[in-house]
Predict the 3D structure of the following.
Amino acid sequence: MPEFKTVRGMRDFLPEETRMMKYVEKTARSVAESFGYEEIMTPLVESYELLAAKAGEEVRLRMFAFKDLGGRMVALRPEFTPSIARIVATALKNEPKPLRLFCLGSLYRYDEPQRGRYREFWQSDFELIGSAKPEADAELLILTSGLMERVGLKGCTFRVGHVGVLRGVLTQEGLDDKLQNGVLQLMDKKQYEDALGLVKTSGASEKCLTILRSLVELKGSDVSKAGETMKKCVDGYEKAVVAVENLSEILRLVVESGCEINISVEAGFARGLEYYTGMIFEAYVPELDVALSGGGRYDKLVELFGGEPTAAVGVANGVDRIMLAMQEQRVIMKEDAGKKIMIIPVGDETRAEALKISRALKNAGMVVEFEIMGRRIGKALEDADRRKIDYAVIVGKKELEEGKVSLKDLKKREQTTVKIEQLAETLKS
Ligand code: HAM
């Protein structure tokens, strides 16, 4: 047999990494809970048509797509948003709005593997369905910033833009949706000259090209100033002006909510996914050049999947990239780990009684390991030290006859004798 390796782009998670992933997931769940998002689960395999509908070329071409044995064209989910829009259009269509939904799980994209980019990765995804109000958009920005803070990350910045600004200009210039998607895809990849070239060959005016050039350069951390400059820039393009006003209002709410969030308003910012209709954003930390989170407003997707016209805004946070950022920033996880206890029977005749004590402590909610290697006491204590056990309960024949065990505090190196019926209480205190 050959020596097997994981498939390219796929990874094993050993205990330390798994612990960190569970920590991020737990934090995301607690954020979901405190913001009122209810967790749902969607299938790993969905119809290709659903996933491809508005994925944008980047994601569409990188799907793990195949025909199942029944001849259906399916794919492994590359994101959660289409599945959630499908559920909102069907099973939850009569539910009162707003709906706040949350998903956690693995996603699959045939991306080129590199630091922070894998073919299997995890997201915590938040979708707020049924409100077109700027406070809904603001909620997603505040929530994402809160998640980064709660996992312990520092220096997070948000790139924020609005699809309606660029689309507003391009629509008024007569570019159809397909052309607009092409332009935005190029802008997402920062291929601005190619994007402008495409606009030019589509017959857009010189004025439009000048505006687009200024929009690409327009960036600023002063939210209200950036908004004003942007508004002047798109003067005469009615829909673009409305979009700028919407963006300014969202950001005003975020800033005035007291949320300490570093925002970079970027008028030429675009995202690869095609379903966005409004505000879009990505979150970064200085240590990584890839985004930790991405999100935005998508008011047409539920309708496209056969539902009522439904406003929606959401964000997906890359769990793997959050973990990478935590490692870079040497974040210490605030784990409420219980004290670890090791039960060591001395000699074969005390094993059954030691197992009984072990069972009682576990039932009392404690973290208990049983010495199962038949080691002598000295070696067993050495092993307990190596594995960072806090207390050893040594079950010896002599003490047992008196209804007692020896309790050793491995950190303080102190040993006492405790009555078995008082052991759980002593350990808890
Ligand atoms: P996205 O920007 O494609 O958006 O992905 C969101 C996050 O998933 C990224 O910021 C990144 O952290 C993580 N991610 C994406 N691809 C990879 C990869 N190959 N390896 C590791 N991490 C990755 C979406 O998925 C949208 N569904 C977000 C959304 C929700 N928009 C509205 N609602």
